[in-house]
Amino acid sequence: MSTVEIVSFGYLHAEPPAAHITLDLRHHFRDPHVDPALRYLTAEDEPVRQAVLATAGIAELVEATARAVDAFAAGPSAGPVVIADGCAGGRHRAPSFAAALGDRLRLAGHSVTVQHRDIHRPVVEREVKS
Q: Considering its fold, how many domains does the chain have in total?
């Protein structure tokens, strides 16, 4: 199989990293930031991961992205496949998704690294829309 690099990030901190596929999780998936009990946690905390992975559509997006990685890996050019996935602050949705995608791709035999660019940045204080 191929080498895959996954980078999660927050759009509110900086531009997305360069990637073959960039996924924007901000608008279609529930933001754990709106829940005061989850706001100051990160994807390193089980309640955040559970909340994100239980969101309708996330499992399907993990599978669809894994299929896209397989398509890139099947191409004639060598080199890693880079996936960037972002949410608002980079602490909840994006790193939870990145970890789940990494697990799925490892099961398929890919060599995977996962980097969470913004997970340890402070919470971005912003208006909460539920």
A: 1
